[in-house]
Write a structure and sequence with these properties.
Blueprint: H1 2-35, E1 41-44, E2 47-50, E3 56-60, E4 69-72, E5 77-78, E6 89-90, E7 100-104, E8 113-116, E9 120-126, E10 129-135, E11 143-147, E12 156-159, E13 164-165, E14 174-175, E15 184-188, E16 197-200, H2 201-236
Antiparallel strand pairs: 1-2, 3-4, 5-6, 7-8, 9-10, 11-12, 13-14, 15-16
The structure holds 2-acetamido-2-deoxy-beta-D-glucopyranose (2 copies).
């Protein structure tokens, strides 16, 4: 029972403490605001002056009797926020050497925005503007493009599985050609980067045919010559029949 009472009083005190801490923190946070200038003012020479709008810089500080004099930023300079600056900032340039090109031109009130060149992706970015880009990886032969590169991501390559091939430029690996299905014969087996090489089956048949025909012709010539010799031998024993062909 005693313990239960203690527990209740402890929790009461801690919630009170929490409220006090919150109030103290709130007051502490407020305190610097009392000595500082209003939100649209800046402090100069122990005095609060109105800020210049984005795109303008301070030309003359305010006095007890005059407000701040602001003038527009010059060409290729800018200031993006309300400010008490005496000079505008130089506009950034998009360096093609860093893989960059202009996405949005600089204005008086906003810096240049850079983006990656074609077939490049951003590797470093500051406030929505790319500061460094690199070329997309080209997939090697034997790999296919699993995911095309974007302005923010590099290309993703993956290996072709057995029985398929890609030269690295394909979105999917192509299956090796089956020479038999094409009525051809395989000359060279396919690899992960090249297709099977097929040749004409008929070329073999034609070669064989040429050899056979050549053989037959040779045989016929030999036979003809043989027959001729044999006939000559026969005619020697037959008396001349005279020239009655004309
Ligand atoms: C401006 O006013 C403040 C207080 O109102 C005064 O202390 C200061 O001397 C004045 N400055 C000038 C330059 O008159
Ligand atoms: C801004 O550009 C000007 C002219 O190109 C140059 O003289 C100056 O040093 C640059 N300022 C900064 C802070 O880079």
């Amino acid at each position: 029972m005693q313990d239960g009472m203690n527990l209740t009083s402890t929790s009461k005190i801690s919630s009170l403490e929490i409220i006090l801490i919150i109030v103290a923190v709130f007051l502490l946070n407020l305190e610097p605001c009392v000595c500082a200038c209003a939100q649209a003012e800046y402090k100069i020479n122990e005095q609060c002056c109105p800020m210049c709008s984005p795109g303008y810089h301070v030309d003359q500080q305010c006095t007890n009797y005059t407000i701040t004099r602001c003038v527009p930023c010059l060409h290729l300079t800018y200031i993006a926020e309300p400010n008490g600056r005496e000079k505008c900032l130089n506009c950034s340039t998009c360096d093609p050497g860093s893989g960059l090109r202009v996405k949005t031109q600089c204005t008086r009130s906003s810096d240049t925005v850079c983006e990656p060149l074609e077939r490049h992706y951003c590797i470093d970015q500051v406030r929505g503007s790319c500061t460094q880009a690199e070329k997309h990886t080209a997939c090697c032969p034997g790999h296919y493009i699993q995911q095309e590169g974007t302005a923010l991501k590099d290309t993703v390559c993956d290996v072709c599985t057995a029985g398929t091939y890609s030269d690295g430029s394909l979105q999917t690996c192509q299956p090796h050609s089956k020479c038999e299905d094409l009525g051809l014969v395989e000359i060279k087996p396919g690899t992960s980067s090249s297709d099977t090489e097929c040749g004409k089956q008929t070329s073999v048949a034609v070669t064989a045919g040429i050899i056979i025909i050549t053989g037959v012709v040779v045989l016929m010539v030999v036979a003809a010559v043989g027959v001729g010799v044999f006939r000559k031998k026969m005619y020697r024993h037959v008396p001349p029949a005279g020239n009655h062909a004309v």
